């Protein structure tokens, strides 16, 4: 059976950019365009040339795309001038992209009130703008703004707008649910009516928003009805509640029925395997914490409960998983603290270079230790480096490099010589290395700004200031992230600190500390980070 | 036209609790149950009595609910014993709730492999367990685990399981898409088939998961097909990608067609107005950052772009909004137009006993100050007491009671006389009260257990140890909760501390502090808490 072609259109760089707090730089847009192209997206909408300096610069330095068609966005020409003489439209076409998408009105109320032009003038604007694009040899797309509300208010006029674009040669007419208020069943019914009225499904696109949490379902309903282009953004980025989430739509369309056998897309299996990485790239550019619970690509998307579920999963993953995590570049997480976890534990230890024989009773001891400490607040799923150290300690394979005798931190707030209130932290750490006692002191001031960075930085700086023969191993190590969580509340609060460290070789590792005292919890995590680095880099043990 | 009754079933406290990292305390569950009841939810599933200490304690101290039916969760009896003699089931029924929901298998493959019992034994387990509940006078619900996969594998057997529950007297049979893999169109088709096979729609519930980002749409598809109970959680909380999000479903079912005219629910318009607050309560309990982009209740859900959109919105909000934000307790955000903000601010200040004339230019200054400080990391929605203090300061109406000259905290970890490693914190605070300098020192040891409670407790104890004439106002005040969040990451981390305080009169108030130094951020929040208490209790100003 020949499969029908379904096209994917990404608007992360245009509609996604409209989001509050999102401000891509040109280099960000170039990296994202390359990642979208690497997935196999058919159209990458890069922005609105002329609307702002970043968008103009991006098109001026347009990346070379292998598969995707770079698309510029703009609006249909204004009334009272020709398409050739509209300077806003000229800025869009001058970007020189092979495809151009123009938004126009199809809701009679918006035409007469917001634009203040006659219904006939609006039809002419659509017709002449699209004809202008095709005359320039560009692939033309027409974005029908507020289409569903427009259709409900005046179906005849809304359809006339679409027909004007179609007849002028638009490759695609895109039905936009601009305010996100149309529910999937209605999107399906109206899409069917549009096709019945003579706009072919293979020239019809769908653009939904998530204001009722139905953007993905709305897009699927339009595909079910016959639309063959799906618009959306990575991670559902977009104003208000976001756009349709391509990160969810792509695996559904490729992996799940009735879509998988019916459609051919530009995204190959190989591209699909890069989906999680593309999702994380956007988070990294936006400096956002990745959503653990994101469908398909979230860290928890394939995390299973302990007990019955986990043991069933080990026997046959299809019992509790609707797709295989590796297909989208994700991984399965089976909690360690369960009976079925021993083989999983051995695999994890092997990955960390710790070989343990099958059936070694130490495996059960490690699982018990992990469980007991997780009940006390430790989080070893997040802190893999501390997990390795705990396993080594239980196995009697934890090398000793140094011993911490004591530490002290002083945090003081008072007036400085200029009479300003300032805060200063100072830490003293006393360690024993190779039988030598070493005392180190450090403050918390950033060397560049001279601003206080708090007690944890001071402690970390003091501990890593002089570790004798081990010092060389720590020169390229730095703290990159720090998360604090209060586990119980009130007077019995326990603090959990998760720390991410990085070194010059690009290694990144996470450690955890737990204490009623936030400074002590932080110190534990810092000490673990140092210890892990020494082991991983093969530092000689004390006495070696 | 008579409207049909549609029932809402919340499982935040049971299925939501299964989420990685979610660990409700009994008091949290009680607060959430009350909030759900206040919305008008019909069933509040509180947990699994006997499965863990928190759930057992919650049912032992069950809150009195006005509208909602408190429901206990459990599983159908095991094979080889009677329902009366199954101790797991007994723990569930002994909780004494008016309704009990039991999960059971309906997928033949799971019955024979996971349970290892015959298909007939499984039917008997369902039948006898449900009959046992009805014999005890309880309302019985049957959760059909993996129903959709089971129906696809063996429709006859899956339907037999439902019929067994129905015939044994189950008020509700709930179709569960346990692994979240069934798409809405298929959920709709299978639900219709179930009804056609003799399970009446008004005894049929739907329970979906968000693994394809279609949980909300799947629930709506089942309602379209005839199901009359919808299960979900606040904010879509749940394992993997979460459960169906009631925070999105409720407004859709109440406000949007075809549902609004067709159905009657337990949620009134008044309850709906508390939806945003209920959503935030859960975030607060979980110490999560509220999702700005959440449909209906997110801070950005009704945030409009500047320019054309915003001016159209001012003329007629229906042009760009599919529902009105205030209906769900949310508010519209229009950039560069704070007319709506000022009247809202005046109302808030009036609630705090701070009267400001309409049009007072101080209102604009307060909004600017709030905005600037929120950009720096403060969170005034959560810290109303600090917001009041900020407004008073801007208005020049902040009384001075005392001045903090300086403070110092020392945190030390070392061996004690018995050779054990111990941590100790000590704080010194120097304040001026009525021209007198007062120095106070306190350590961090819990008077009862002699355990270290960390630097924030030591600082708080020192500050409130001797405030001269104000001391009497502080005797009944205590710290009850403490939340820490790192706002930026890496070396430029800013720490936000939110503090909840309580007094003997049952007042509870929240304050905030922000600093690169976690101890300093905590001190700011403690100082604000003291200041608010003195103002609220009418302490005389300095010199009065």
From TrEMBL, chains A, B:
Keywords: Amino-acid biosynthesis, Branched-chain amino acid biosynthesis, Isoleucine biosynthesis, Transferase. Pfam families: HCS_D2 (PF22617), HMGL-like (PF00682), LeuA_dimer (PF08502). SUPFAM superfamilies: 2-isopropylmalate synthase LeuA, allosteric (dimerisation) domain, Aldolase. CDD domains: DRE_TIM_LeuA3. It catalyses: pyruvate + acetyl-CoA + H2O = (3R)-citramalate + CoA + H(+). Residues 6-273 form the Pyruvate carboxyltransferase domain. SMART domains: LeuA_dimer. GO terms for molecular function: (R)-citramalate synthase activity; 2-isopropylmalate synthase activity. It comes from the Bacteria. One of its GO terms (biological process) is isoleucine biosynthetic process. Pathway: Amino-acid biosynthesis; L-isoleucine biosynthesis; 2-oxobutanoate from pyruvate: step 1/3. Its EC number is 2.3.3.21. Belongs to the alpha-IPM synthase/homocitrate synthase family. This is Citramalate synthase. It comes from Paroceanicella profunda.
């Amino acid at each position: 059976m020949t499969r029908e072609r379904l096209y994917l259109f990404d608007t992360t760089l245009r509609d996604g950019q409209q989001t509050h707090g999102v401000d891509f730089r040109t280099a960000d847009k170039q990296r994202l365009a390359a990642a979208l192209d690497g997935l196999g997206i058919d159209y990458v909408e890069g922005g609105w040339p002329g609307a702002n300096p970043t968008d103009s610069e991006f098109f001026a330095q347009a990346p070379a795309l292998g598969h995707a068609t770079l698309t510029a966005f703009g609006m249909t020409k204004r009334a009272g001038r020709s398409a050739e003489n509209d300077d806003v439209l000229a800025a869009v076409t001058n970007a020189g992209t092979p495809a151009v998408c123009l938004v126009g009105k199809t809701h009679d109320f918006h035409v007469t009130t917001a634009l203040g032009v006659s219904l006939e003038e609006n039809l002419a604007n659509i017709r002449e703008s699209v004809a202008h694009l095709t005359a320039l040899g560009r692939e033309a797309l027409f974005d029908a703004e507020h289409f569903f509300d427009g259709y409900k208010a005046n179906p005849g006029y809304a359809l006339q707008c679409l027909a004007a674009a179609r007849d002028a040669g638009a490759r695609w007419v895109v039905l936009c649910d601009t305010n996100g208020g149309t529910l999937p069943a209605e999107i399906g019914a109206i899409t069917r009516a549009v096709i019945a009225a003579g706009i072919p499904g293979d020239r019809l696109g769908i653009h939904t928003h998530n204001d009722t949490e139905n953007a993905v379902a709305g897009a699927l309903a339009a595909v079910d009805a016959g639309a063959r282009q799906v618009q959306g953004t990575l991670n559902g980025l977009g104003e208000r509640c976001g756009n349709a989430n391509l990160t969810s739509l792509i695996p559904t369309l490729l992996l799940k029925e009735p879509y998988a056998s019916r459609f051919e897309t530009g995204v190959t299996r190989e591209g699909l395997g890069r989906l999680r990485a593309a999702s994380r790239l956007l988070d990294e550019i936006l400096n956002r914490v990745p959503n653990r619970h994101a469908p398909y690509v979230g860290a928890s998307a394939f995390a299973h409960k302990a007990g019955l579920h986990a043991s069933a999963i080990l026997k046959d993953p299809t019992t509790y998983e609707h797709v295989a995590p590796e297909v989208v570049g994700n991984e399965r997480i089976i909690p360690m603290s369960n009976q079925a976890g021993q083989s999983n534990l051995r695999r994890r230890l092997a990955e960390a270079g710790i070989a343990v024989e099958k059936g070694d009773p130490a495996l059960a001891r490690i699982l018990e230790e992990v469980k007991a400490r997780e009940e006390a607040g430790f989080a070893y799923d997040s802190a893999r480096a501390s997990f390795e150290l705990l396993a080594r300690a239980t196995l009697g394979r934890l090398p000793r490099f140094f011993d911490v005798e004591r530490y002290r931190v002083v945090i003081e707030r008072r007036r400085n010589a200029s009479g300003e209130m300032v805060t200063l932290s100072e830490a003293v750490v006393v360690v024993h290395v190779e039988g030598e006692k070493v005392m180190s002191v450090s403050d918390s001031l950033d060397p560049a700004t001279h601003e206080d960075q708090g007690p944890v930085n001071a402690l970390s700086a003091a501990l890593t200031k002089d570790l004798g023969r081990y010092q060389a191993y720590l020169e390229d190590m730095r703290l990159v992230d720090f998360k604090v969580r209060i586990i119980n509340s009130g007077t019995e609060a326990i603090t959990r600190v998760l720390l991410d460290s990085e070194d010059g070789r690009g290694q990144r590792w996470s450690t955890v500390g737990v204490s009623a005292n936030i400074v002590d919890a932080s110190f534990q995590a810092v000490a673990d980070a140092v210890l892990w680095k020494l082991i991983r880099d093969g530092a000689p043990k004390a006495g070696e």
